[in-house]
């Protein structure tokens, strides 16, 4: 399985405030997008010498990240890896005791590539994005 680091997902209550803090570190803010499948607002931050960062904020109280934010405040949420074949990667990770949290879906924030989320008790939440 050929995994490549893609981005770090950060759960936050307010994208504007968090993006402003990242801008002080040299990050540039991209366009904010609403993802109806995940019920979240998303904004990617870029830096010429640093990893890509994805900010995620809840669209409403039904968003999957609300409870995490209530418990932890702004916090790392997931690590994303790109893969060439998402179905094959999921199969291999399931054999390593990863649990599929979300089956492959189209991600409007990542140029309509398919993404899936998996969880492992020793790794936390990971996202796979198909190249």
List the helices and strands and how they pair.
Elements: E1 4-11, H1 15-23, E2 28-35, E3 40-46, E4 53-58, H2 66-72, E5 75-83, H3 86-95, E6 99-107, E7 113-120, E8 124-130
Parallel strand pairs: 1-4, 5-8
Antiparallel strand pairs: 1-5, 2-3, 3-4, 6-7, 7-8
Fold and architecture overview:
The protein is of the alpha+beta class. The protein has a single domain, classed as 2,3-Dihydroxybiphenyl 1,2-Dioxygenase, domain 1. The chain contains three helices and eight strands. A hairpin with a 3-residue loop joins strand 7 and strand 8. The model has no long low-confidence stretch (mean pLDDT 96).
Features of this protein?
131 residues, alpha+beta, 2,3-Dihydroxybiphenyl 1,2-Dioxygenase, domain 1, 3 helices
Helices and strands, in order, run as EHEEEHEHEEE
Largest β-sheet summary: 8 strands, mixed
Give the C-alpha Rg.
14 Å
Number of helices: 3
- The structure class reads alpha+beta
